[in-house]
Amino acid sequence: MLSLTNSIPISSHLSDTRFNFLSPSGSRNLRRVTLVCSRLSFPQRNICRCSTTEQPPPQRRKQRPAKQSDEEKGIDPVGFLTKYGITHKAFAQFLRERYKSLKDLKDEILTRHFSLKEMSTGYELLGMHRNVQHRVDFLEWAPGARYCALVGDFNGWSTTDNCAREGHFGHDDCGYWFIILEDKLRQGEEPDKLYFQQYNYVDDYDKGDTGNTIEEIFKKANDEYWEPGEDRFIKSRYEVAAKLYEEMFGPNGPQTEEELEEMPDAVTRYKVWKEQHKNDSASNLPSYDVMDNGKEYDIFNIIGDPESFQKFRMKQPPIAYWLETKKGRKAWFQKYMPGLPHGSKYRVYFNTPNGPLERVPAWATYVIPDAEGKQALAVHWEPPPESAYKWKHKHPLKPKSLRIYECHVGICSQEPKVSSFSDFISKVLPHAKEAGYNAIQLIGVVEHKDYFTVGYRVTNFYAVSSRFGTPDDFKRLVDEAHELGLLVFLEIVHSYAAADEMVGLSLFDGTNDCYFHTGKRGNHKFWGTRMFKYGDLDVLHFLLSNLNWWVEEYHVDGFHFHSLSSMLYTHNGFASFTGDMDEYCNQYVDKEALLYLILANEVLHALHPNVITIAEDATLYPGLCDPTSQGGLGFDYFVNLSASEMWLALLENTPDHEWSMSKIVSTLVGGRQNVDKMLLYAENHNQSISGGRSFAEILIGNSSKKSPISQESFLRGCSLHKMIRLITSTIGGHAYLNFMGNEFGHPKRVEFPMPNNNFSFSLANRQWDLLENDVHNQLFSFDKDMMDLDENGRILSRGLANIHHVNDTTMVISYLRGPNLFVFNFHPVNAYERYTIGVEEAGEYQVTLNTDEKKYGGRGLIEHDHIVQRTVSRRADGMRFCLEVPLPSRSAQVYKLTRILRV
């Protein structure tokens, strides 16, 4: 008798099966089947041995842990209010209601999707995908359409060849249209005999060309897998059923339903059988009894045969033979022509209640304008595996501080043209690395209709702009940046979309409410753009999948969310904000947009723990960078937009001697809530693109043309240019940003070609040759040493700055950050030979960076013997010791404690 001692757990999640067929690109080209199972409740089974051997003790069922409450999970919808000591009943109630809405939204999502991860991977299903069964599948969401067809150069732009229509297979109740483009059988070839015949389009594309027939492959697989006699019941399908029937009813049992009398239940029949065989030997009896006492169990144990179980576990399926049934590209090309070849141009055709229309598919991954530049076309991007881009480098490690180099690919060249990804790789990436930055931020990369919009009026959210190159070109850019240790951030525009109907999402299916709100709420009243309907599950599916797409497909490391204020409020942020908390929870706040941002951060950080998200919100909505579990929105950084506006106002409208040091400090550090999450910049692309001037243009003009500027004005401009950048980069949080070219004082603004400048490219480029000019090279050297100061001295990654000296009369600012002392003298005239600054530690302080050095274009007024300063035992600025340092006018110095003295 076999020893039956092993206990085998069996899960009962085997019912209500749904299949989602996915045909992703690249490595996802193999058709995936997602099996979604719901739970079944099984009655309790007590397992007992009916043989004479000793019965093992019954096992106690493991109790499921009780469902955790929000408090046990560490969730507090108003947690960040308590953290900052904010008491505002209306806003606290708003946060609680928002959290309840978030839970309801997640429950609603999970009624349609298996998980949030599945919801954020819609690109694996929607759009155009190669299927392993020699075809291409197309799926699009257009609930307002009545008829859908694909038109393109592959079918002569026919509206009837490849279609799906309402009420037929290919269209569901949610508005999704499914079209299959079969590959074309070559003349003289016969179709495959097996309906499940698959092809390797990408992985091991030569695998399968063995010449073996299907019959030979199956015979070899069966010979390897089945032991002698095991395949007997497969060859004779009804043998087991007939034997069981004979055991139950005998050899002359009933042959029709009329002859079949009412059967007693299974327990009764088993007891009768057991009574008849009570005198049999134990070997003839079953090895276990199954008794049901009416209780429900999700998991039950079966005491089985350990030898048979181990034998089953060791059995390996003959996968190697199954792979032989897959034909490689050689066999596929020999037999078939692709129904949609690589590079084919296409659009989607809809018949709507308002008439027929053509659109670029919403999930298209590559879009180019036609010859006349008026209408866009989607391009099927499916390069053969031997020429498709292959990733070479991994993501760089997430740094503790960010030094971001903001770039626009189109203006990266010195030539008056639209530059390419290749131009950017050869020129900007090495420069950004040399300059000491550890991240680049790209604007205008996502496909947009008009070049002069800088890329903010996005038309195709899944497509890289064809102006700069192909999708593979952009992959190479990201890969090359990663090789240099540079993170790649993408400025993403989910706050609005282009209103162009022929190339964008507006009126996509002929209705006004497909992706966007209707009426005034669906249109930005100042920018003429469309506003997303964030409360719609399909829109959330589109946007969340879009974020995940850029990370998965192009390996970007983070996102800069552009202009959140335009989506957070129904007035698009164009209202006067006084700082009252009521302004963040009144009737003008879009709760659905807030829920989307929370979901976006939760999904991104769950799927990609090292991803970085940056919020750009002029209204500084409370809780931007606080955890979502504490009532925040979950961003990693927020942008202090008021800093650059302050500097521009001071430079253009305020005389130097009237600058307020208190205002400068308060603007740069804000309310000191989440200052460690603040991203600061002195100037970015907005100031010059919006028609303003760069700081260098205001301060020093175009020095390359020797413009008539006095030596005094020139020194003033260079000094302030360095001081503004130094204090902005070191007084705030752990992140600093600079726009391409501003680090060396680019003297011209940015202006894209448009009708009012006769489409001129004269200002849509960067003058890299200015680095050969002494002035610009000196400014670049200072900026490079400033970045090096953070790289080697870890300035930004330390705690917050201790601002202990702000004097509006002397115009001096001083603060400590770790062992580093920063001293700024903004006074236009007054210089101080021995200015007293308090410090906490006694010792020797050495100058590590001085804006007035001659190599940076300064006057070199600080003598060499003043480079090292020793503390004086006298209290100052609330500190135990002080330094008496020389401060030339319009200069700044950074001191580092190099030696501690015992007092």
What is the strand and helix layout of this fold?
Blueprint: E1 6-10, E2 15-22, E3 32-38, E4 42-48, H1 79-84, H2 89-112, H3 116-119, E5 127-131, E6 135-141, E7 147-152, E8 163-165, E9 176-182, E10 184-185, H4 214-225, H5 232-235, H6 239-249, H7 266-276, E11 289-297, E12 300-304, H8 306-314, H9 319-324, H10 329-335, E13 336-337, E14 345-352, E15 355-359, E16 366-369, E17 376-379, E18 402-408, H11 421-435, E19 439-443, E20 446-448, E21 458-465, H12 471-483, E22 487-492, H13 537-554, E23 558-561, H14 565-568, H15 591-607, E24 612-615, E25 637-639, H16 641-653, H17 661-669, E26 678-680, H18 685-689, H19 695-699, H20 711-730, E27 735-739, H21 774-793, E28 802-807, E29 812-817, E30 820-825, E31 832-839, E32 843-850, E33 868-870, E34 881-887, E35 891-900
Parallel strand pairs: 16-21, 18-19, 18-27, 19-22, 22-23, 23-24, 24-25, 25-26, 26-27
Antiparallel strand pairs: 1-12, 2-3, 4-11, 5-6, 6-9, 7-8, 7-14, 10-13, 14-15, 14-17, 16-17, 20-21, 28-29, 29-30, 30-35, 31-34, 32-33, 32-35
Helix pairs in contact: 2-15, 11-12, 13-15, 20-21
Structure description:
- The protein has 903 residues and is an alpha/beta fold.
- Among the domains are: 126-203 and 236-256 and 321-390, Immunoglobulin-like (Sandwich); 641-900, Immunoglobulin-like (Sandwich).
- Helix content is 26%, strand content 22%.
- It contains 21 helices and 35 strands.
- Strands 7, 8, 14, 15, 16, 17, 20 and 21 form an 8-stranded mixed beta sheet that branches.
- A hairpin with a 2-residue loop joins strand 29 and strand 30.
- Helix 2 (89-112) crosses helix 15 and helix 11 packs parallel to helix 12.
- The longest helix has 24 residues, at 89-112.
- It is elongated.
- The N and C termini lie far apart (88 Å).
- Residues 1-64 have low confidence and may be disordered.
